[in-house]
Specification:
The chain has 22 helices and 8 strands.
């Protein structure tokens, strides 16, 4: 009614004006507080920028997974309960359903409201969004098992408020098909007829206006990454997917192809939950880097107060031994993680103020891709020359962390990248086909220092590292009892008053029917892909 009142005095003029003037009246009379259309490219940017959570780093990464993977320890020494996830673990779930998935799922809706010509020009953008959405759904399911996906994110468009849960087995099939279709779209669409994300692509927009070629490679790499999770459950399907993907010539071939979010210094603000200070290096990990002259050592860790690289004991029983306990009175007794590798605006307190460098969040690096290729080849699944891919992975990882350390302005950092060939010749590093799969997993573990969730997945899939591998772990004990890292998130069934209770309960009951899953709140149980 408000629109009618506004237009009525001008009705005569409106009848005399050209028909296109009608659009003007509509535009000036819509509710200024209502957003009627959203640029899907802007939604992609928002999803990418929102994909990293300070709470996830504070709880999940710094105080849980980094300890379990024996990268770091608690500054006071690990407690007897450190392998039990904190109650607020699993922030990735909320990030996906509250931000990333929501934004990406809305992009096709916004495009559907455009003219046919505009829709035709947005197909590459939607394909890229599909690859990113598949990645994050995979990331969430990886430790949660069954999740809502096919029916999810429909409520805003009048769809279901009670989405069914996709089983992890079905979801992995769905995601593979989704990525495969997206890659095909990107490979067949002429970029000249397609709109580009350009700088709205926070992952590759810095490299090119048309980022589609990078997303083709990222999509193929992601298919391999997901397929490897099928190693114990569906080995034939793993082989089929891997061989199909590798038949495509569009593969990652350099660090530029890596799927990495680069951010400004204020993004991961060291004064808040991103603060990475006071996390001592775990002794087995830093000893291995130091002994073998690993070029990444200075990028990963600061020296201790004696100018060396002393590590902290991951095992609670070792940490409390009389000879070791007193060392925990001063955290500087131990080497600590390089704070600017995690939060580039960290202030060292040396009078030079906060850092102004570049931060980063790797999703799927070229080095990880190389180790995936090496693993597939070493197992005889797909491809060849595991030794070459293994060496390429190490070289790519060393170069990647060297560049990241320099751009993060790590204090006193001295590049050792030129020593990579010497490192590759070290007895524990030189490729040995008789233990190649172990070496590949251990080097992947080092590469994944900034992706500890994926390091956790490699350990679950391969069993490496462990206490007897070339990169050794500590034997974890608390009061003489053996400790093992958890394998999944703890799940909690909602109250019956929850609107989607029936679907949630059905999904959880189905997962619990697998004896390997354990009780809902048992973090030592296993989701579907993580078979014994």
């Amino acid at each position: 009614m408000k629109i009618v009142k506004y237009i009525s005095p001008l009705l005569g003029l409106a009848l005399l004006a050209a028909s296109c003037k009608k659009d003007t009246f509509v535009n000036i009379n819509v509710d200024p507080n209502t957003l009627y259309a959203v640029d899907p490219a802007a939604e992609f940017l928002e999803a990418g920028a929102g994909s990293q959570s300070d709470f996830e780093y504070y709880y999940d990464v710094y105080r849980d997974i980094n300890y379990w993977m024996q990268y770091t320890t608690n500054p006071a020494g690990n407690s007897p309960t450190f392998t039990t996830p904190q109650s607020n673990f699993n922030y990735r779930y909320g990030v996906f359903y509250g931000k990333v998935g929501r934004d990406l799922a809305d992009m096709p809706v916004q495009v559907s409201r455009m003219t046919p010509d505009q829709q035709a020009r947005k197909q590459n953008i939607l394909a890229i969004a599909a690859i990113f959405k598949a990645y994050y759904a995979f990331y969430v399911s990886d430790i949660n098992g069954s999740i809502p996906y096919t029916d999810a994110f429909q409520a805003r468009q009048g769809g279901t408020l009670t989405p069914k849960y996709d089983t992890q087995q079905d979801l992995f099939d769905t995601l593979d098909t989704q990525i495969k279709t997206a890659v095909h779209t990107l490979e067949t669409n002429n970029s000249a007829t397609q709109d580009s994300l350009a700088l709205n692509d926070p992952f590759y927009g810095r490299l090119a206006n048309n980022t589609a070629p990078y997303w083709i490679k990222a999509g193929n790499a992601l298919r391999l990454k997901i397929a490897l999770r099928l190693m114990k459950r569906s080995p034939d399907k793993l082989t089929s997917i891997a061989q199909e993907v590798l038949a495509d010539a569009n593969q990652m071939s350099s660090n530029d192809d890596g799927w990495v979010l680069l951010v400004g210094p204020a993004y991961a603000n060291a004064s808040g939950n991103w603060n990475p200070s006071d996390f001592p290096a775990a002794k087995p990990f830093i000893d291995f880097l130091n002994t073998n002259g690993d070029p990444r050592l200075g990028a990963f860790f600061m020296k201790d107060n004696q100018g060396g690289y002393r590590g902290s004991w991951p095992s609670p029983d070792e940490a409390k031994l009389p000879a070791n306990k007193g060392l925990y009175n001063n955290v500087d007794t131990f080497a600590q993680i390089q704070p600017r590798l995690f939060a580039p605006n960290y202030d060292y307190g040396d009078g030079n103020g906060a850092g102004t460098g570049v931060g980063f969040f790797p999703l799927l690096t070229y080095a990880e891709y190389c180790f995936i290729r090496a693993d597939l080849a070493a197992r005889g699944i797909a491809g060849s020359n595991p030794d070459v891919w293994y060496a390429n992975g190490i070289k790519a990882s060393v170069a990647f962390y060297d560049e990241r350390a320099i751009e993060a302005n790590i204090k006193g950092y001295v590049s050792k990248a030129s020593t990579v060939n010497t490192y590759l010749a070290m007895p524990d590093i030189a490729y040995d086909a008789t233990k190649g799969i172990e070496q590949i997993a251990c080097q992947a573990n080092i590469e994944l220092f900034r992706q500890p969730s994926e390091a956790w997945a490699w350990w679950k899939r391969t069993g490496f590292p462990n206490t007897t591998t070339v990169l050794p772990w500590s034997d974890l004990k608390a009061n003489g009892a053996e400790l093992v890292p958890p394998r999944r998130a703890m799940l909690v069934l909602s109250l019956p008053t929850y609107s989607n209770y029936n679907n949630q309960k059905a999904a959880y009951d189905a997962m619990a029917s697998d004896p390997n899953f354990g009780a809902l709140n048992d973090p030592f149980g296993r989701v579907w892909w993580d078979a014994p």
